[in-house]
């Protein structure tokens, strides 16, 4: 099967954390050989902080089912095409459990993109990535891990095709090291979520440990 995915020396995985706002990390992110983003977070109007380049984006169920609807609606089609065009020749990946309903949504998404002239590969796992990641990492490295986030899943998968990984926007706290108040996401004005379906702090501690031993580069400051 043909795939645009290769092996890369440097990869950036860009989360959506509010710590990216006013970070000036855009150029540094774009300098990586391969850039992965989460859940179609916008880059337009945030280029200075998050960059422009996108080679892969990871999506959730809501996005998978909404995009075909928007592509078929003349009022939203142009905006979605503009949003997807930077990803042309890249990959959209669904990395959560795949049910028959989700398969139908992914098929509709794949057809809609092809009909719109977009050359975007759509991938999904035959197994449940969340269960697999919990089994592998939870056994010894993160004993309290449950319901791993898309960010942790794609980082783990990224280690199979990236030599050096830098993480941006992976920061779950309401203030940064300079006591600056942060929003939950860089493109929204909502406060940092305290109660979610994920334990961001456990995952952050794991990523910070990997950073300390040189296994990953966890960016939690400005890039000036």
UniProtKB/TrEMBL annotation:
It comes from the Eukaryota. Its main location: Golgi. Belongs to the glycosyltransferase 29 family. It holds the Pfam family Glyco_transf_29. The lineage of its organism: Eukaryota, Metazoa, Chordata, Cephalochordata, Leptocardii. It is found in: Golgi apparatus membrane. GO terms for cellular component: Golgi membrane. This is Alpha-2,8-sialyltransferase 8B-like. GO terms for molecular function: alpha-N-acetylneuraminate alpha-2,8-sialyltransferase activity. Keywords: Glycoprotein, Glycosyltransferase, Golgi apparatus, Membrane, Signal-anchor, Transferase, Transmembrane, Transmembrane helix. It is a single-pass type II membrane protein. One of its GO terms (biological process) is oligosaccharide metabolic process. It comes from Branchiostoma belcheri. InterPro entries: Glyco_trans_29, Glycosyltr_29_Sialyltrsf, GT29-like_sf.
């Amino acid at each position: 099967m043909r795939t645009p995915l290769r092996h890369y020396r440097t990869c950036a995985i860009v989360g959506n954390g509010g710590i990216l706002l006013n970070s000036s990390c855009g150029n540094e992110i774009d300098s990586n050989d391969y850039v992965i983003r989460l859940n179609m977070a916008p880059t337009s109007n945030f280029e200075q902080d998050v960059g422009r380049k996108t080679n892969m984006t990871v999506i959730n169920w809501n996005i998978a089912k909404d995009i075909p609807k928007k592509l078929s609606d003349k009022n939203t089609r142009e905006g979605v095409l503009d949003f997807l065009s930077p990803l042309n020749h890249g990959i959209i990946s669904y990395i959560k459990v795949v049910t028959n309903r989700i398969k139908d949504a992914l098929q509709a998404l794949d057809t809609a993109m092809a009909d719109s002239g977009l050359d975007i590969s759509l991938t999904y796992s035959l197994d449940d990535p969340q269960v697999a990641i919990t089994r592998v990492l939870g056994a010894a490295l993160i004993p309290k891990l449950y319901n791993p986030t898309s960010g942790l899943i794609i980082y783990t998968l990224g280690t199979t095709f990236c030599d050096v990984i830098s993480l941006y926007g992976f920061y779950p706290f309401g203030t940064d090291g300079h006591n600056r108040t942060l929003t939950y996401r860089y493109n929204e004005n909502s406060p940092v979520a305290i109660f979610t379906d994920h334990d961001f702090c456990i995952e952050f501690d794991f990523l910070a440990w990997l950073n300390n031993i040189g296994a990953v580069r966890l960016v939690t400051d400005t890039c000036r």
